[in-house]
Write a structure and sequence with these properties.
The complex is a heterodimer of chains A (260) and B (170).
Chain A lengths: L11 H26 L8 H29 L3 H6 L19 H22 L5 H29 L3 H18 L9 H6 L7 H16 L21 H10 L1 H5 L6
Chain B lengths: L3 H13 L18 E7 L2 E6 L9 H13 L6 E3 L15 H9 L2 E2 L31 E5 L7 E6 L5 E5 L3
Parallel strand pairs in B: 2-3, 4-7
Antiparallel strand pairs in B: 1-2, 5-6, 6-7
Classes of the chains: A mainly alpha (260), B alpha/beta (170).
Chain lengths: 260, 170
């Protein structure tokens, strides 16, 4: 049985750095969850309607828990963080700026994101900040099902028809550069590493992920170009995302004083 | 000597066994394994809730129901029902009685053992067998690892030709 948690003493700079990390991870989960929910009702088969909707619900649930952790830390409100920000204030990786595209494009993105998220979650589960470590440990178990789904569809499209494979490959090629940005450096990263709030540098996680993904994709597509995370990888926004932001904030904007 | 706290805690555990899961009412929150701990200090109760899935939409309903029912007991003045992920809920926390109740409600209980977090994904594939909760046949196939709620997979029984759901192993 767990006891009252003894939180590590965080000074203002630690808190800012941790808040930046939590916001990055939460926004990734939130935005991919909303993109995937766009498939509800129109996926290529009924089983995928159910699967994609369930995965989207998981991701948005993960985002909610992370926003709540962030809200506790910054004395804010999780709903405000999720639905009360301008599009420019979101900090998701550029990978999630793209509209859902066709099914193969979504499969390509899911594969790239799930593999990156798995590497990141392993590091977060080792965080010295106990509330984050336990939440990440819990989320990891659920993500196992997402990875299974992502890998199954990657294989299915890669081994199906030329058309399926071509669409998958063009999705992977289109998203490859922006996928690196899941590991974009954080401003407060050195502080997070020093305090062991982040157990592994983004650069090391990136190298681990890229090796793993390159090995897996080698039989599927031509060698993907050299690519690395960039400092503004979580600050670039697109019209696709601005449209999605308009969608997911529309209910909250319609009645701003409503309670949920 | 039995303290007032211990008496109150026992009363709370007993009351919790009568609070149903909002989505599968045949099973109590205790048999589902979502109660992490119960403690009482100065007539203030703390019931820690371990969500099955992080995004489970029934969490709020569970918190309200527990607050209301435990708050109605004469052994406490205040109740708080915080969410915790430490320890994480796993499907192995479902009690033997809970597994039987799931089966009687038409759900196959989860496979035993924790879900693999790194590798070992093949253990979760469509090749796995779940026993049909209606006819007991093992001639079943997984139709979809994802189901109508976050915690369920969909199966089909080739003998009684009945679709059924399995509580996901986590």
């Amino acid at each position: 049985m767990s006891q009252a948690i003894e939180l590590p003493v965080l000074d203002a700079a630690d808190r800012d750095a941790l808040a930046e990390l939590l916001l990055a991870v939460a926004d990734d989960e939130f935005v991919i969850g909303f993109w995937d929910s766009e498939w509800t009702g129109i996926a290529p088969m009924l089983e995928e309607d159910v699967a994609t909707s369930s995965i989207a619900q998981d991701e948005i649930g993960h985002a909610k828990a992370l926003y709540e952790l962030l809200a506790t830390l910054t004395d804010d409100d999780a709903d405000r963080i999720a639905f009360g920000r301008d599009a420019a204030d979101f900090r998701h990786a550029a990978l999630l700026n793209h509209a859902r595209g066709d099914w193969a494009f979504s499969v390509a993105r899911r594969y790239l994101y799930e593999t990156a998220d798995a590497v990141r979650l392993a590091a977060l589960a080792a965080s010295s900040y106990e509330p984050l470590a336990s939440l990440a440990g819990k989320i990891r178990r659920e993500e196992t099902y997402h990875q299974l789904h992502g890998e199954a569809w990657l294989r299915r499209l890669a081994e199906s028809t030329d058309a399926g494979r071509d669409r998958l490959v063009s999705g992977l090629e289109c998203l490859w550069t922006d996928a690196q940005e899941v590991f974009a450096p954080l401003e407060g990263e050195s502080r997070l590493l020093e305090r062991r709030i982040l157990a592994k540098p983004m650069q090391a996680m990136h190298a681990e992920w890229q090796t793993q993904v390159r090995d897996r994709l080698r039989p599927i597509c031509a060698e993907l170009p050299d690519a690395s995370p960039t400092p503004d990888g979580r600050r670039r926004r697109t019209d696709d995302f601005r449209w999605l932001h308009g969608e997911f904030t529309s209910v909250a904007r319609s009645e701003e004083t409503a309670t949920w | 000597m039995v303290t007032a706290e211990a008496v109150a805690e026992a009363r709370i555990w007993d009351e919790l066994t009568h609070i149903p899961d909002p989505e599968i009412p045949a099973i109590s929150v205790v048999d589902l394994g979502v109660i992490g701990s119960v403690s009482v200090r100065d007539r203030r109760a703390r019931v820690e809730l371990l969500p099955t899935f992080v995004g489970c939409p029934a969490i709020g309903v569970m918190q309200e129901q527990i607050s209301e029912r435990i708050g109605g007991l004469d052994v406490v003045d205040e109740v708080e029902v915080p969410i915790s992920f430490d320890p994480p809920w796993t499907s192995d926390r479902i009690s033997p009685e809970g597994r039987e109740r799931l089966r009687l409600s038409g759900f196959a209980p989860p496979h035993q053992g924790p879900v693999p977090v790194a590798g070992g994904l093949e253990e979760l594939t469509v090749l796995q067998v779940a026993e049909c909760p209606y006819c007991g046949s093992r001639n079943t196939t997984m139709e979809n690892v994802f189901g109508p709620t976050l915690c369920r997979s969909i199966f089909h029984c080739a003998d009684c030709r009945q679709p059924f759901e399995q509580f996901k192993r986590l």
